[in-house]
Specification:
The complex is a heterodimer.
Chain A (H helix, E strand, L loop, with lengths): L4 H22 L10 H8 L15 H4 L7 E3 L12 H13 L4 E7 L6 H21 L7 E7 L10 H7 L1 E8 L1
Parallel strand pairs in A: 2-3
Antiparallel strand pairs in A: 1-4, 2-4
Helix pairs in contact in A: 4-5
Chain B lengths: L3 E4 L13 E2 L5 E5 L6 E5 L3 E2 L6 H11 L3 E2 L18 H6 L4 E10 L2 E10 L4 E11 L3 H17 L8 E8 L6 E8 L6 E6 L3 E6 L5 E6 L6 E6 L5 E5 L5 E6 L5 E6 L6 E6 L5 E3 L7 E6 L5 E6 L6 E6 L6 E2 L6 E7 L5 E8 L2 E8 L6 E4 L7 E5 L5 E8 L2 E8 L5 E5 L4 E7 L6
Parallel strand pairs in B: 1-9, 4-6, 4-7, 5-7
Antiparallel strand pairs in B: 2-12, 3-32, 7-8, 8-9, 10-11, 10-33, 11-12, 13-14, 14-15, 15-16, 17-18, 18-19, 19-20, 21-22, 22-23, 23-24, 25-26, 26-27, 27-28, 29-30, 30-31, 31-32
Helix pairs in contact in B: 1-3
The chains are: A alpha+beta, B mainly beta.
Amino acid sequence: MTVSLSHVGRFLTLAALASAVAVGCSKKVKETPPAETPVDSAATTAPVTSTTPGAYTPADLDSDACLRQRVVYFDLDQDALKPEFQAAMSCHAKYLRDRPSARLRLEGSADERGSREYNMGLGERRGNAVSSALQANGGSASQLTVVSYGEERPVCNESGEDCWSKNRRVELVYSEK
Amino acid sequence: MKRIARRLLVPLLLLPACAVLAQSRSLEIDIVGGNAAALPITVVPFGGNCGETDVGGVVRADLGRSGQFRSPDPASLPERPTQGSEVAYPTWRMLKQDYLLIGRCVPGGDGYRTEYELFDVAKQERLLGFALSAPAGAMRDVAHQISDAVYEKILGVPGAFWTRIAYVTASGLGRNTRYALVVADSDGYNPRTVVNSTEPLLSPSWSPDGRRLAYVSFEGGNSGIWIQDIATGSRDKVTSFRGINGAPAFSPDGGRLAMTLSKGGNPDIYVMDLGSKHLTQLTNHFGIDTEPTWSHDGATLYFTSDRGGRPQIYQMPASGGSATRVSFDGSYNASPSLSSDDKKLATAQGAGNTYRIALMDRSTGGARWSMLSPGSLDESPSFAPNGAMLLYAAREGRRGVLYAVSADGRVRQRLTLGDGDVREPAWSPYRKR
């Protein structure tokens, strides 16, 4: 994996956020406390057990470095998957193969520029791109749901490329682990 | 002189407890820009007892916001007539005023009787003389109706002040954002929240009778289209297909709803017959087709499509058929809104990182474009029912604000909520008396 350190850091926080939200969603609604504290300790004590190529378990979602990558970022106006996310696609696809009961929501988003309804379409295209990549790696379409939030769920709201690049994303949210 | 008395029937909104919550914060208003060519009209502060409402002040603000009129500060007025016998024309001619509006209120019943008179200063002639009776809580409605009458008498075009606007507010960030769909008077006063949600709300669209709103809500984990009765709060989910359920737009006869659905694999335009719930697919293209907008005769649908690579405005017969491209100016055009005569088309036009409200005027045959807003992230234009003004959304710092702009672009006015992010304005049709 050729992922820079800053990327890893960003993934860890976002992955923690995404998993916290997944828990919140599977219940009824809302109020996810900011889940940043458990990340650091878990991150350092989670080597990938490559010796036994066994099946993934739900616990791996929190401990496996690859499975913890649950946000895919996109370039401006693009829905093409960048090569750096290939590894994440293949491990999540493996998780889906290993656990046929797992269900994954792919929540697509766009940055704030332009029309909100058009951005719904862009978010869906990105969700579909991730869905296709997961299926190409052996995931089953029946386990995947694409939901576009357009520009309605930004993670930041400054006007500038720094923030916009964080909002052009697909979040992988396991509704069933 | 004859005086025509009109009984004002104000639809008192009975707000039910469930979906509807009162909202006390109102919008603050700043005027940006001005128009030297505007007609000078003095609106004298109304005499008598109008209760808590500054009726003359509301009228003055309405007329000023239109860009067609300018009024002197009431503090500078040498005289303050409140009825016709007190009007000295030389005073107003000396002040270079074309028109003079005066009035007074008399308490009666559970409210007030408001009398007003409009004068043409040069002709020394009374143009209007009416009286309106209304409950105390409806005095801003009275003022907006006076503004409409004055606007129409002088310009020959109906005013659109006694109308409403719908918009969406958001507060908080990320998953903790709270969304509200709000309905307010056209000047931003009397905001009432009609839906609250922890999930995104967007794309409000008025029914032609002004009684219902269609909108998109993500409650339940995916987008769905809802129609809600504004007065009663009762609502129905119209669609909740897999994928996008978006961009609802009532047909001019109110019987159909155009929308965007991606249940077929990518976003296409559909029309639902609201009686039978029967769906007709109008576009079938691998590009994104969205934001259907009806022409006012109901014959044509305008929409946004990126079938040519970038989003542009297209049109097609509402009964189905082939689409033709309409916008050729600017690399990005979306969110079409049509004036009531269908001759002006407003879009959110993008170039690089700048998005402005653009107006394409086809009244002289060709397509003449002008810019109505300075940018940089302006979106969601919505025409007033008389076509003379538009609302749009802009970003200022981290939050969204609304602007009202005259269709000639000369006068802009900001309507900002006390806090939070305001977006997606939709101007209502004319209200029924």
